[in-house]
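This section describes the prediction task in plain terms. A model, or a person checking by hand, is given the sequence of a single protein chain and must write out its three-dimensional structure as a string of C-alpha cells. No templates, partner chains or ligands are provided. The sample shown here is typical of the held-out split.
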Amino acid sequence: MEAKRRLLGMTLNELKEVASELNLPAYASKQIADWLYKKRIVSISEMTNLSAANRNALSEKYVVGMTSPSEFMKSVDGTIKYLFQVGVNAFVESVYIPEEDRATLCVSSQIGCKMNCSFCMTGRQGFNGNLTTSDIINQIQSIPEYEKLTNIVFMGMGEPLDNADELFKALEILTSSYGYGWSPKRITVSTIGVAKGLQRFLKESDCHLAYSLHSPFPDERLSIMPVEKAFPAKEVIAQIRQFDFSHQRRVSFEYIMFDGLNDDLRHAEGVAKLIAGIPCRVNLIRFHAIPNSPLKSSNTENMNAFRDTLTKKGIVCTIRSSRGEDIFAACGMLSTAKKEQKN
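The expected answer:
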C-alpha cells in the first residue's frame, strides 16, 4: 500500500495541485494552508470548513504529517536542543535559544553534511540525505515554544544551499501571507558558499545571509574546510559584493575562533582586508569542543583583541555568547550519540 503524503511543507501551488487531483473546490487549497500554517492542526479531521466528503477524500491519500520531537535536552541557561527522527536510524537537531528580547530557533536542512569541516560533528556523520520541506517546517511548528519564536536561523545540521529547492519552499512558507507571514528580516540562512545556491539566494530572497569564513587565508581555511578548494572564500565574497546589504537586508561573517590557529591579530587584519567595504557584521564564535579533536577554543583575551582590531577599522564585530554547553552543545553531537546508541 502506498504511503500517504504529508501536507505539512507544501506550498500553496502544491496544495492547489492536491485540490485539483481530488476535485476539491479551487478555494480549498487556501483553506488547507490556513489550517496547516496558521491554526497548526495535526489531523485532517480538524479542517472543519471542508465538507466531510472532501475531508475523507483528502485523508485517503494524505496526512498532515506533523510529528513531535523524539527527545529534548534543556540547558541550565534555558537553551533546549530537540531531536527529530527523520527516517530509519536517522536524526536531526534543532535548538531553541531564548534571550531577553528574542527567541531564536536554529534548524537543520540535511541529515549529516557533505562539507566535512574538521571542527563540525555533523560533518563526521557524512551525508545521509536532504531534509524535505516538511521535515524543515516540522522542526519549527512542532515545538512547544513555537508561539514565542521571533527568529529562525538555518545554522543547524547540513549546508542549506546544498538543499536549495527544499530550502526555498520552506522560506516561501515562512514569509508568504498564506503561511507564517513572517518578515524575511526574521530569518537568516548560513552557508559555506555553495556558488549556484548562493547566487539563487542572493537574487531571489530578502532573508539575511551568514557566511562561514573561519580564516581569511586560503591555505589555512582549506586545512579545516575542504570546501575552500571548490568555493574559495575570495570568490564567494566577490559574489556577495555584487549585492546591496546597506539597507535592511544584512550579511554577517561567522568566525569560529580556534586557539593558536586563527585567533591572532594577523588573522584579524586579514579578515578586515578581505571584507573591506562590505556593510556587514562579524560574529566571533567560541568553539564548542567535540570528541577526538585537537581543536580548542580561543581564550577571552585573544577574542577581545580580535574584536577590538576589527572595531577600530569600522567593522561591527560581536562575540557571540556561548549557549547550551551542558547539553551536547556542538551541532550534531546529540544526533550522533543517538545514532550510535541505535547501532
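For orientation: The first strand starts at residue 5 and ends at 6.
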